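Title: Comparing notes on inverse folding

I've been comparing how different people in this forum approach sequence design from structure. To keep things fair, I'm posting one structure and asking everyone to reply with a full sequence. Here's the target:
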């Protein structure tokens, strides 16, 4: 007589797909079942993806060829991505501790790295957009004579915006899981240092402007 099979509830999570709808479950899975080396691929590819997305609306074309800009992202992106994640992890870990977070540096590193998955996912579309309509990619105000290209450029811009917002949502969810506190605390853990950085950059910008223009503040 066959014994009844016990129903499995611990299904296999695929982070690249599950992160979109279940960011907290995905973060928990990575924390429990993956080590920090697992995230290296996400960090390196995320650096390249971020570099490519940052080229949008920079008006660098046609001063620089698209292949040259793409090559620069591929070469420098992984290094910049690793440094950015390391700094972001350190800041988030420290600020999170102030809010009573219990996550380790490695925990924050792992959940921060997977927040780059949405950017990685849309990179092929950005490359296709850049290759087929560099004018609209590097200058979003450029009006192409082809209606299809204009529609495609608008759709790509909309997708990029949505992905950027969702990456933030994923990051907040991951930080909340890693530090074992609420989403609101996770939000302010990210928001406060970001706001302070913007203020510091703004002050330095004003000081440099006044120094070179001769205006006293």
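Reply #1:
Here's my take.
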């Amino acid at each position: 007589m066959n014994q009844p099979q016990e129903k499995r509830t611990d299904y296999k999570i695929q982070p690249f797909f599950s992160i979109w709808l279940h960011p907290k479950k995905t973060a928990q899975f990575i924390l429990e079942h993956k080590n920090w080396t697992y995230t290296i691929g996400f960090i390196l590819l995320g650096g390249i993806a971020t570099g490519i997305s940052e080229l949008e609306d920079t008006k660098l074309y046609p001063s620089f060829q698209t292949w040259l800009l793409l090559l620069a992202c591929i070469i420098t992106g992984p290094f910049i991505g690793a440094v950015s994640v390391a700094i972001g992890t350190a800041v988030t870990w420290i600020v999170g501790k102030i809010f009573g977070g219990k996550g380790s540096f490695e925990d924050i590193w792992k959940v921060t790295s997977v927040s780059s998955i949405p950017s990685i996912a849309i990179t092929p579309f950005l490359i296709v957009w850049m290759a087929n309509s560099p004018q609209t990619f590097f200058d979003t105000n450029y009006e192409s004579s082809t209606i299809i290209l204009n529609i495609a450029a608008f759709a790509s811009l909309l997708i990029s915006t949505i992905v950027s917002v969702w990456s933030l949502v994923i990051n907040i969810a991951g930080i909340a899981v890693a530090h074992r506190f609420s989403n609101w605390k996770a939000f302010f853990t990210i928001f406060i240092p970001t706001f302070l950085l913007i203020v510091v950059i703004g002050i330095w910008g004003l000081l440099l402007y006044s120094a070179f223009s001769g205006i006293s503040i």
